[in-house]
Amino acid sequence: MARTTPLLSACMIVRNEEANLPRCLASLRGLADELVIVDTGSTDRTVEIAESFGARVLRETWRNDFAFHRNQSLDLATGRWCLVIDADEEVTDTAVQETVWHLERDELPPLMMVRVIMDYPDGKRVAMLAPRLMQADANVRYVHAIHEQLNISDMMAGLSNIRLLHHGYCSPAALTAKERRNLAVAEAMPDGPHAWHCRARSALTLGEWDKVVASCRDLVRSVDASVVLRLEGCVLGGMAACLAERDEDLAYMVEAGRSLGEDTPDLRYLELVHAARRYKACLAEQGDSTDSPTFLRPWSFWHDSRLASAVLEVILGKRKVVERPALSEGETSSLPAGR
Questions:
Q1: How far apart are CA 117 and CA 151, in angstroms?
Q2: Cβ–Cβ < 8 Å for 222, 196
Q3: N- or C-end of the chain: fewer Cβ atoms within 10 A?
Q4: How many Cα atoms occupy the beta-carbon half-sphere of 32 within 13 Å?
Q5: Mean pLDDT (whole number) for 93-98
Q6: Which domains are delineated in the chain?
Q7: Cβ atoms 252, 230 nearer than 8 A
Q8: For 29-38, how does the pLDDT look when each residue is reduced to its tens digit (9 = 90+)?
Q9: Model confidence over 172-195: pLDDT tens digits?
């Protein structure tokens, strides 16, 4: 029996997306019964393309507030379910018929997580879970002008089999333009944990180390910030300090991270970089094991500042590790032996 009301509405906000929109809307065929698009001032063929796919388009003046326009798209939707998707994303590797079957028949939680795979210019691919699929009658809405989030603190959620591939970070030029826009929006927001976090994220991509460190110090010291946000402040600030070779700021972020009592690979990485730099500085001051005439007694371990520099470059990703072939029987390594 044909449905009388839409099962799933795809909800989007767009602006000048003629290059991406056809791919996105084509990927929604068979999954979305309704396409709801809020256009915030396109000057290209975006609206024409959207309407050619049968989308309902609301033309709006951009208000410098992503949450506001996200909520507009949700308010316009008439489906039982809403899928929030961006024009530079596409549905991929998803069993569409199976998804529709479950949405129609199962008693699912009001909020469903969607896998989002992000492609980056250097060929890296990062996957994350995001709450993008929600029941319309759950009445969840977005907050925050940039890096908007749902206004929920505790809600049962499930895992959808929908997968989205995000193309927005593939182009370095496009990524830079997007982050400049994001930073401008974040800097216009009132000071607070979310604003500091957003400023740090965008400034880090743009290489504005002073802004990253300043925002992260505010975030780490904030009594209103959650442990998760303060931890990310330590990591983002530590990354900026690493890249800017600001050891004092790096030490501050490492110590702040330790004080939170959390153990994550990011924090351990920062600790490793900090320790490697201190080790290298110590060798620069006190000498290598090869400089034995300068010592009253030799060091217990073999120390080589060139090796320390190489190891630090490997840790920072500036040098690749080339594996040596295994030694055959009878062969010996030419590396110097430890004491």
A1: 24
A2: yes
A3: N
A4: 28
A5: 93
A6: 8-147+155-166 (3.90.550.10), 172-282 (1.25.40)
A7: no
A8: 999 999 999 9
A9: 888 888 899 999 999 999 999 999
